[in-house]
Design a protein that fits this description.
- The mean pLDDT is 90.
- The protein has one domain.
- It has 2 helices and no strands.
- It is an all-alpha fold.
Length: 61
């Protein structure tokens, strides 16, 4: 399986950094998500594409 999401720290979503996010190509609609939320998003995408899991593992969050 190959999928991923870029984790961005919550501090990076302040209005004072909007110009930097635009310069870096981060979409305006992108909002802060925890690592757990990003992981669930990846799992749900895989399930929607027919990939099933018997177990899951992750590192410390």
């Amino acid at each position: 399986m190959g999928d991923g999401e870029l984790f961005l720290p919550e501090e990076g979503f302040g209005e004072d950094l909007a110009d930097l996010r635009q310069e870096l190509g981060i979409p305006e609609k992108r909002r802060f998500e925890t690592k757990i939320e990003l992981g669930l998003k990846i799992i749900r995408r895989a399930n929607a594409n027919g990939v099933s899991f018997d177990w899951r593992a992750c590192n410390a969050v």
